[in-house]
Design brief:
Layout (H helix, E strand, L loop, with lengths): L9 H4 L2 H20 L24 E3 L14 H5 L5 E7 L7 E9 L8 H5 L5 E3 L14 E2 L1 H6 L12
Antiparallel strand pairs: 1-4, 2-3, 3-5
Bound molecules: iron/sulfur cluster (2 copies).
């Protein structure tokens, strides 16, 4: 056969079979989703939310002691371990002589965080955990810098109440 002389069969030139096949696939999924909505792969987010694995690494939580005091001792290990350099801590002396230090400021820049969990791994006193929350949307870049107060608020978070890995 000479190059350039090949002609597609009529069935392929009008694309009719391919169009009907495509419509068949669409119709099959349409009726399957209507008849068996429980098996649909999509969900009506945000009304419906997926259950994530307990190992899911979401927004950080700063845990507190039973008396409500923050557990963090401002040792800086998490900030040192963080590969994204997004944890900023200002340590201060605690008024209670039995407690050496506490974080006067503890900020995490969530626009830099890569959710690696190294901060949680590094902490010797279980003061920071990766929580279950994955929703992270704001209108202003500055709102992505989470303060100590916000990080505490992320969970109902005495250590006994926060998930265990
Ligand atoms: S999860 Fe990783 S990147 Fe995010 S603050 Fe912790 S150590 Fe840094
Ligand atoms: S959260 Fe943990 S590792 Fe980070 S400064 Fe506080 S005590 Fe140290």
């Amino acid at each position: 056969m000479q190059k350039g002389n090949y002609k597609l069969p009529i069935s392929q030139r009008v694309y009719l079979i391919a169009i009907l096949k495509g419509m068949g696939v669409t119709a099959r999924h349409f009726f399957k989703n209507i008849l068996r909505p429980g098996q649909m792969p999509t969900i009506s987010y945000p009304e419906v939310k997926r259950n994530y694995s307990p190992r899911f690494r979401g927004l950080q939580i700063l845990t507190v002691k039973e008396n409500g005091d923050i557990r963090c001792t401002a040792c800086m290990l998490c900030a040192t371990a963080c590969p994204a350099a997004c944890i900023h801590i200002t340590a201060a002396e605690h008024p209670d002589p039995k407690v050496e230090k506490f974080p006067q400021e503890f900020n995490i820049d969530m626009l830099r965080c890569v959710f690696c969990g190294m901060c949680e791994e590094a902490c010797p006193v279980d003061a920071i955990r990766m929580g279950p929350t994955y929703e992270l949307a704001n209108f202003d870049r500055s709102d992505f810098i989470f303060t100590k107060e916000e990080l505490v608020k992320h969970g109902n978070n005495t250590v006994s109440q926060v998930k265990h890995h």
